[in-house]
Specification:
Blueprint lengths: L1 H24 L4 H28 L5 H22 L3 H4 L10 H29 L5 H21 L1 H6 L4 H28 L4 H24 L6 H21 L1
Length: 251
């Protein structure tokens, strides 16, 4: 349980680290953001395969069927979150440089917290569920992958909030809340996975499917939206290969 708690803290703090970097660089360039996000996508894809999907298929009787059912269920979970809660870019309702009134600012801040929290909760669940197996190295890979993904995510949410007039203290407070959401998600995911080993393959596959959907539906399209995609593609492959190397060392 101690290692789960430490990983939960680490995953949550990675968002804060990204936010602090966002304060320092004051809005990364599109090219830099795409390269970092592509690297995180490669890490997440590799970790979801080695740390979630393969362990799901090896978790016992009927694990193959539960894995096949869990993958689309995880995708549907993220899809519903995206439908219910607005995306980050539409939450503010303002163009860069506009200043909101106090009342509108508070409302948008609350929506910001809900939107980011809803997106981060399944990621935290994926981390916690991965620790439900005896494959500690695989669980650590999943935690590392999500933590690396949280850093650029934390970076890119700072500039939009500052641009609508939200002060630095409140912006940092929102980042802290988003990190706390993943900590809670990690602990809840571990609790669910520990209660029943029968549903563990489904939960692992559910977590893997949610990660795959985020990669395919959000991360890769965003990093390859421009004309120059060689650097993001190479960064993606480097991130994917990094987890293979780490998996070989840990095993």
């Amino acid at each position: 349980m101690e290692i789960v708690f430490l990983c939960a803290i680490g995953v949550g703090l990675s968002t804060i680290l990204g936010a602090l970097i966002g304060f320092l660089i004051k809005g990364p360039s599109e090219k830099f953001s795409n390269i970092i996000l592509a690297f995180a996508a490669g890490v997440m894809l590799s970790a979801s395969i080695w740390g979630l999907i393969i362990p799901s298929m090896e978790s016992g009787r009927f694990s193959f069927i539960l894995t096949v059912l869990g993958l689309p269920a995880g995708a549907v979970l993220i899809w519903l979150c995206n439908k219910i809660v607005p995306h980050l870019h539409s939450v503010t309702g303002l163009e860069a440089g506009e200043i909101s009134t106090n009342e509108n600012e508070i409302n948008r801040v609350l929506l910001f917290v809900i939107a980011i929290g809803a997106h981060n909760l399944p990621e935290g669940l994926a981390t916690g569920v991965s620790f439900g197996t005896e494959n500690v190295s695989g669980a650590l890979m999943v935690a590392l992958a999500i933590a690396l993904q949280n850093i650029p995510e934390g970076m890119v949410i700072i500039a939009p909030m500052l641009s609508v007039g939200i002060n630095k203290r409140r912006t940092l407070g929102i980042a802290l809340l988003t990190g706390a959401t993943e900590i809670v998600g990690t602990l809840v995911g571990y609790l669910f996975a520990s209660v029943s080993s029968v549903v563990l393959p489904f939960l692992l596959s559910l977590a893997g499917g949610s990660m795959l959907f985020v990669i395919v539906d959000e991360m890769i399209p965003e990093t390859h939206a421009g004309k120059k995609t060689l650097a993001p593609s190479l960064s993606f492959l480097f991130g994917f290969s990094l987890i293979i190397v780490i998996n070989s060392i840990l095993n």
